[in-house]
Amino acid sequence: MSPFRTALPWIALVLLPSPALAQDEPIPQPPVPAPPAAPSRPAVAPVADSTVHRHLGLFLHFDLGAGYVRSWASSSGEVSISGPAVPVGIAVGGAVSENWILAGEVWGTLAPNPKVSFGGSSSSADDTTMSLEAFGLGLTHYFMPANVYLAFTPAVTLLSFRSGSSTSSTNYGFGAKLATGKEWWVSDHWGLGLGVQVLVGVNKDQGGGAPTWITLGGGVTFSATYN
To answer: Which of 226, 149, 150 lies closest to 190, judged by CA?
Structure first.
C-alpha cells in the first residue's frame, strides 16, 4: 500500500475543520453601563420673612381712648367750654428708614354735652358737642426692642360746636398732637398697645374782632398698628 494512501485519513483529519470548530462562537458584548442617577436636589429651607417684628414698609395706626378737653377765649369776659372727651386718630404712611415712620394723620377729640363757663357761672350744654378736628403729617419713632413709640404730628385744626341741628365753626388754625405709648406684638406685623397723648389747637373765630380759641386736651388711648 502506498504510504500516501496510508496517511490520507490523517491528512484529511488535519485539513478538514472540526464540526465543533466550524460553529461561530458568540462575540462577547461589553457590559452596558447603567444610566447615571439624577443628581439629588438639596432641600431648600423656607425663606424667613425678614420684616417680622420690625418697623419697615407700610404703616397703619389707629388709636381710640378717653380723656378731657377744654377750649377758652376772652371776649368781654372769659368763656370756656370743657368736659370729658373721646380722642381718636388714624394714620397711614410708611417707614423712611427702620423705626422711623412718616405718615399722614387725621386726629381729633370729641366732647359730648360739655360744660360752658362764662363770667364765673357754668352750666351743662345738653344736646351739644364740641370737637377739635385736625389733619397733618406726623413723624413717629420706635425705640426697639422695647417697641415704645414717640409721635409728633403738627396739623391744621378746626374747632366746631354743634347744638341740636345747628353747627358753628372757627376759622382753620394750627395745632399739634404729641403721643407716646408701648405696643406688644400679637402677630408678625400687628401690634396692640396703650398710650397717652396731648392735643393743642389755636383757632380764630369767624367775624371781625372775633376772639381766638385755644384748645387743650389729652387722654389715654388704645392703639393698633400694622407695620
So the answer is: 226
